[in-house]
Amino acid sequence: MNILCVGDVVGSAGCRFLHRILPTIKHQYAVDICIVNGENSADGNGITPASAKLIFDSGADVITGGNHTYRRPEFYELLDSSSTVIRPGNFPVSAPGRGFCVIDRGRYQVTVINIMGVVYMEPLACPFDTLDMLLEQAGNPKFCIVDFHAEATAEKKALGFYADGRVSALFGTHTHVQTSDEQIMPNGTAYITDIGMTGPIMSVLGIKPELAIEKMRGKIPVRFSTAQGPCRMNAVLITLSDATGKATSIERLNIE
Q1: Domain-by-domain residue ranges, the chain?
Q2: Is the sign of the CA dihedral 196, 62, 153, 181 positive or negative?
Q3: Which end of the chain is more exposed for a tag (fewer CB within 10 A), N or C?
Q4: How many whole angstroms separate alpha carbon 111 and alpha carbon 161?
């Protein structure tokens, strides 16, 4: 089974590029399930019903979230109504949405879990305890993919080892910079610290460079906007054993 995990889609530029390139990539790599982090897919940040629709129309099976999930109130209804749009499961139970979903293909079912880190981020529930809780709620599934939306590399690595052997794969999102540490952990879990982003190449994490510089130099609020120009899709392709649910390979992809 081939699972494609696509890095944070940034703004309308990232959405348009995803819409153009994803169908070809899915066909080329015989993708069975496609997971896309969409929490920055609206211009400015956050996610809207319109940007979520474009991601699904591009070929995504699941949209995951992160710290910008709740930026747009108009998105809350979709979080509650859609079975394939998920948000970090360590938000309070009162928050709209859910922390995992199940993609049922008949002969197999794939559980997708979304968790957020707490180091340098919001003081949510413990990611480690949240993983235990969600795995139990999902019935300790054979095929399970985790999007860990976190800032600190050590926190991501630690959760990767904690999850090793209990999930098929754990990939990091949030930093928008793809790391080169993809590996199969000792007990069969595919891991990478961050899969990167889908958006403008000549940018600061998808934002116009001059605006990021202005904010960092001036230390006062700046209204960000998405950069223009050619885009790139960062992703990983993970192959799972049909017999065991464990990973047999993980490959970084960079598509321009």
Answers
A1: 2-255
A2: negative
A3: C
A4: 19
Catalytic positions are: 68
Average pLDDT over residues 207-233: 91
61: which residues sit within 8 A by CB, 6+ positions away?
A: 33, 34, 35, 84, 103
pLDDT digits (tens, 9 = 90+) for 52-64: 999 999 999 999 9
Cβ atoms of 88 and 99 closer than 8 Å: yes
- Residue 45 scores a pLDDT above 90: no
> In this model, does residue 85 exceed pLDDT 90?
yes
> What sign does the dihedral 160-234-55-173 (CA atoms) show?
positive
d(CA 55, CA 57): 5
**With contact defined as beta carbons under 8 Å apart, do 60 and 25 qualify?**
no
Quote the CATH superfamily of domain 2-255: Metallo-dependent phosphatases (3.60.21.10)
Cβ neighbourhood burial of 76 (10 Å; 0-12, 13-18, 19+): middle
Do 99 and 74 contact (CB within 8 A), yes or no? Answer: no
Q: What percent of the chain has pLDDT above 70?
A: 100
Q: Which stretches of the chain are DSSP H helices?
A: 11-28, 49-58, 76-81, 127-137, 153-163, 209-218
Dihedral sign for Cα atoms in the order 121, 127, 129, 133 = positive
